[in-house]
Amino acid sequence: MAPMVRLGTRPGPSALHAAAGRGECMRWPSIGGLQLKRSPRSIRFLQSRCIATNAAVRGTGVEFPSNTPPGGIPPAQTPSRQIARERIQAIENAKPFSDFLTDNFKRQHDYLRISITERCNLRCLYCMPEEGIPLSPPATMLTTPEIFYLSSLFVSQGVTKIRLTGGEPTVRRDIVPLMQQIGSLRPKGLRELALTTNGISLHRKLDAMVDAGLTGINLSLDTLDPFQFQIMTRRKGFDAVMKSIDRILEMNKLGANVKLKVNCVVMRGLNEREILPFVEMGREKDIEVRFIEYMPFGGNKWSENKMISFQEMVDIIRTKYPGLARIPGHKNDTSKTYQVSGFVGKVGFITSMTNDFCSTCNRLRITSDGNLKVCLHGNDEVSLRDLVRKDNNNEPIDQEAFERIKQIEMDRASGRLSDSTVLGWGPRERELLSVIGQAVKRKAEKHADMGDLANMQNRPMILIGG
Predict the structure, then answer these.
(1) Are the CB atoms for 363 and 109 separated by under 8 Å?
(2) What is the pLDDT of residue 353?
(3) Does residue 264 contact residue 292 with C-beta atoms inside 8 Å?
(4) Is the model's pLDDT at 26 over the cut of 60?
(5) Inter-residue contact 265 to 222 (CB < 8 Å)
(6) Which residue among 113, 364, 381, 451 is the one 20 to 30 A from 465 at the CA level?
């Protein structure tokens, strides 16, 4: 049982080390003021370690002393030595990264983005035409068991981060049970479970999502002006979005540690005057605002004249904040991160059009109709859905069908079922991995240049999933 902490107090170092040593996370009790009543697991005090602890500790075979005193670590074993020993043992026990997810340029794809719906409650200018788009027949959409199965397959091959996208993922009725199922893959190696959302209905489901293991939110917001919001999204909802942002920040003050990034697509003539107000959101709030260069997708009427480059945005900010400085990031980051001196928050720039990050790309995408896209700006796709459904007469696999297929696999294996994926290893997995591996190996070194992208046929952004 993990140690409990009184609300408003912080656990001491001894308690933290004791909990970490057992592969546990410090958990807050339910927080009445925020109505976090579902479970003590709703808030995890040990921040980013919480979703990863069991996977990182048990998955590497590291065994902690069972006789650790409740108040701390055995005197003979200092924290620094113990951490060093664990890291060495983890490296020794680490498996080679999957060849199926490694392309010909040695890029290892450990980040999977899954679109779970084509539907959206907004009509953003850069995302889809004003009249909307024809939706695919429901039978072509991936079901929850299918998404969970594919998630388990990719995690078994080394994926450590899964992001659910759309459309708008919160409009999917069963998103919380889906997140709970994907969250159960933590012992298999999943470390992060993230969401990309417009925030309209997020505040209503946020508690349950945190309880399911949500670790990160990218929230799309292109203006801080309610009237301009309605122009750019063709819908109302600004107040609901701000309520969702405030809710995340409230929960984080109490230890939820949900990593929040606000994504803003900057378009000339529409919202470039709001660059500075967005930067100033981070004066006292722990928010990373990321400005995105306007990109061409089917139906969004892109033109180079509407695009504001990364360098131009930096210049605009430095007119008021000359101390804006680059800060180090991770090699696989899509954004270049900066900070204004004295500000709590950060500023990022996603520079797909003028300064691509293809050489360190570690992302794969599955569309809501089950196609694998190895590049956001590429138009090559391969169906995984058809292979998954082959044993179900090409029909969607609901929960009943999923359990039936699982039992067939167990019977076929005569009790020798591997637990590497939720349906064990067999011809289906080998065929899927072969198709995935071939698609990954075909991934180009970089996407097309700006002029070529504007003329390429690609799905509308809402049908890709961001």
Answers:
(1) yes
(2) 77
(3) yes
(4) no
(5) yes
(6) 451
Give the helix/strand (H/E) hosting 208.
helix 202-212
Is 240 in a helix, a strand, or coil?
helix
* Average of per-residue pLDDT values in the chain: 79
Distance CA 300, CA 129 (A): 6
Phi-psi region of 383 (alpha: psi -120 to 50; beta: other; left: phi over 0): beta
Residue-wise pLDDT tens digits, 128-181:
767 777 888 999 999 999 999 999 999 999 999 999 999 899 999 999 999 999
Closest by Cα among 299, 277, 302, 307 to 289: 277
The widest CA-to-CA distance across the chain, in whole angstroms, is: 70
Question: Which helix (H) or strand (E) is 293 found in, with range?
Answer: strand 288-293
Residue 382, H or E segment: strand 382-383
Q: Where are the alpha helices (DSSP H) in 94-201?
A: 144-156, 175-183
Side chain identity, residue 3: P
Q: Does 16 have pLDDT greater than 70?
A: no
The one-letter amino acid at 240: A
| pLDDT given at position 379 | 74
Query: And the tokens for 220?
Result: 């799309």
Q: At what angle do helices 202-212 and 238-253 cross, to 10 degrees?
A: 30
Closest CA to 310 of 344, 273, 340, 265: 265
pLDDT at 3: 41
Instruction: Please give the sequence-ordered ranges of beta strands (E in DSSP) within 123-223, or none if there are none.
Output: 161-165, 192-197, 216-220
The average pLDDT across 93-108 equals 88
Rounded to whole angstroms, the Cα distance separating 448 from 353 reads 10
Identify the residue with better confidence: 15 or 245: 245
User: For residue 371, what are the β-bridge partners?
Assistant: 383
Query: Could you tell me whether strands 382-383 and 346-350 are parallel, antiparallel, or unpaired per DSSP bridges?
Result: unpaired
Residue bearing tokens 């920040």? 249
Q: Cβ neighbours of residue 15 under 8 Å, at least 6 residues apart?
A: 3, 5, 26, 71
